[in-house]
Write a structure and sequence with these properties.
By secondary structure, the protein is mainly α. Helices cover 57% and strands 6% of the residues.
């Protein structure tokens, strides 16, 4: 089993934490998605036509979405996770759905652009460069449809970060996160009792990201959720999953 992932990638963190929490052994293949942009390479296109991370290859099976990897981890965990309990499965799925409805990329980069003014020039320029590179490769690509889809996604990103008042957009994302946090149950140990679930995985990664971008204030200090996250951070799977709670640009430059 090989996991193709990037250290800084939010959805890669979900995949890493899911597999480690389920005690599923895998080989790690870190991708350079910032400098070398390996996700856009021809060899990776054959693995994941969406040109995103993470991807999980398990013999003849290939999962190209973190949510599918999360489900796979839950299946492999079996009774060790609460997902298999019909009494909780619907509530767990609702939390997972709620987390995936949050546009964490828009909140992360929107906050970065507001906090670091030079990024307001750098990020659009970077996106335009990616779009141009993909457009140049359309004629020779073995999968032009996949490239067209990737171009469309990056055009949407470019429009989001360059059109309209970005501060208002970031406020909307904050409100969405807060609304999601309000749906979470009390946390005696794990979110639904004593046993891990997919809801614990996605919530832990989300709170780690809020820490990283300076938005952890959305979690009430001393609340049950705050205390739950303090316990989760001490767990071996969380520590081994390399959940970024601070931005580490040096690792991007060193491709680590």
């Amino acid at each position: 089993m090989i996991l193709y992932h990037a250290s800084s990638s939010y959805y890669s963190m979900i995949a890493r934490l899911a597999l480690l929490s389920a005690q599923v052994p895998f080989t790690s293949r870190r991708m350079d998605i910032h400098l070398a942009k390996e996700q856009l390479s021809d060899w990776y296109l054959k693995i994941n036509p969406h040109m995103t991370v993470p991807s999980l290859v398990d013999d003849e099976h290939c999962l190209t979405d973190s949510r599918d990897i999360l489900r796979y981890a839950a299946t492999l965990a079996g009774l060790k996770w609460l997902d298999s309990d019909p009494a909780h499965s619907t509530a767990i799925e609702a939390i997972v759905n709620g987390q995936y409805n949050i546009s964490i990329e828009r909140l992360t980069f929107g906050k970065a652009l507001l906090s670091i003014p030079p990024l307001r020039l750098i990020v659009p320029r970077m996106l335009r460069g990616i779009i141009k590179k993909l457009e140049n490769e359309l004629g020779s690509s073995a999968d032009p449809v996949a490239l067209e889809n990737k171009i469309s996604i990056n055009r949407e990103r470019l429009a989001y970060f360059t059109q309209g008042k970005l501060s208002d957009k970031v406020d909307e994302q904050r409100q969405q996160v807060r609304a999601f946090l309000d749906t979470l149950p009390s946390c005696p140990n794990m979110l639904f009792g004593q046993t891990t679930s997919s809801a614990d995985v996605v919530t832990a990664v989300l709170l780690g990201r809020l820490k990283m971008i300076g938005e952890y204030g959305l979690v009430d200090k001393g609340s049950a959720l705050d205390q739950w996250f303090a316990r989760i951070q001490k767990s071996e799977p969380f520590q081994d999953a390399d959940i970024w709670m601070r931005f580490q640009p040096w690792r991007i430059l060193l491709k680590r």
